[in-house]
Amino acid sequence: MMADPTAPIITPTRVAAALLVAGVVIAFGFSANNYLLQAGTTLAMSAVLCLAWNIVGGFMGYPSFGTAAFFGVGAYAGGILQDAGVPLALAWIGAAAAGAMFAAFLGSVLLGLRGHYFAIGTIAVVEVMREVANNWEGLTGGAIGINIPILAGSPREVGIFFYLAMWALVAATFALTAAIAHSKFGFSLRCIRQNESAAHMVGIAVFRAKCAAFIISGLLISLAGAVYASMVAFIEPKDVFNILLSIEVPAMVMLGGAGTILGPLIGATIYILLRELVWVNFINFHSAILGIIIIAVIYLMPEGLVRRFHAQAWSKLTKRSPSQSGAGS
Amino acid sequence: MTDPTLQLEGLTRRFGGVTAVDNISLSIPKGDIVGLVGPNGAGKTTLVNLVTGFLPKSSGRVLFEGREISHLPPHLIARSGIARTFQIVQPFAEMTVLENVMAGALFAGQGGTIRQASDKARHYLEFVGLDRFSNYSASDLSLANRKRLELAKSLAMEPRLLFLDEVNAGLNTSELDNALDLIRKISSMGVTIVIIEHVLRIVLSLVKRLIVLHHGAMLSDGEPSAVLKDPAVVTAYLGTKFSKRHQAESEHQREKLQQSLERGQGPA
Description:
By secondary structure, chain A is mainly α.
């Protein structure tokens, strides 16, 4: 973004907007029917995944298709811990820690790669993790999956609980994203995205910054995976290590605007709305229609909605051609 | 007796069978402005890459202000007070000019907050005369201004040793005069400067000491007029055949060849 980098992050307008959104989200949760509650929870989960992916894929510019790997690791870590009798909150914390450690290990290997090589490496990780989950029956229950204790309470209460939990995670992830975007760390990620050699040259600890971003992103995705596992109470390898998730998440972020703060939220919202609409109206070939929409959006608007609608203000700052003929003076 | 700013001891780098930098030893005192020259492929940029940590050395030592640095990664060398410009400019293309210079201020040297970095960046943009382009995207600048941006970014790191790698290449005459003035101003601030140039004429107006590399080895080191008379240097630039003739020619002819040498022309 081309905004003044020293401008304050917290302004009265933004606080008011955040409170308004929070109010709407909570009110919606308590008044919606079961279908809408479910859709709202799915939207929140997608938003968390998008915001988390954006740290690596957007700010840092590393095209990760590893979302499903972290999601699955979090889901299984949380589920296995819960099955072992660990309380819900601790199981989620454990899943987040497992995701962070997994990301640290994976990052130290994969972050030496760039561009297409990194992308393909992350795809391979999803496939490997699914096979591990399929075959390590002692730990994961193998291909038949595992059951996870269902929360006490009426289905409606449980639904609202997970709806609010997912949205709390959205709020935390969003706040973290905004803080990163305005920090030295975020600045270093943007430098890395644009020119890694130059980033070294100005004194950025490039590899350490890349690992940190990858760990934060992996931790958040795994946490979302654990909340999901507790919510659905049954997970299997082909569900939580699903490569489609790794593709949908970047598509949503690109729809909104990769590397922006609001883009992942807006992209997730529009994508999930579209998906529900298409699902309801074209039950037979919804996947095809959704695919066409994704391709159209990315082809016609690669910069994303956020930048498109900022375009006028933006172009004033960036596209104005400097009169440089006399610039030597 | 203070340590020299930069000291190389037997610095060597091999690429397979080729020795790109061959057993270079030299010492540069604080505040000097030194020209590092040599024909294409002499190993000038490789030498800078070794000192700044972009390439691992094969053997030898690099000491910065008396401290061994050749085992450090590039970002720590940058933070310790060594900055460089790249022969091919390396801006953060999607960032504004101001943000580019802020990157230099933010991570090297004293560091500080984003606001402090912004203030420092504005100062150095003014210093190089780019302040009115602060909000332009770096990719929108002309080549001359991108070279200045590179310079401002390096200066914002507040280095004590600055490598300028062909920072003047591709500039026209008036741009060149401005660039040379800037380099003199930076030198007068006490920064030790090593200026790498392919074209001798440019460095001669700036430096009191010239180091000539050829095939990775140190060919000559000393006061510019003496270095230019060094038969080994003449041979390297003009080739053996021309250099023999050169030695046999009269003083008048010698002057003429000297001039062509200073224009940076190699053998035909």
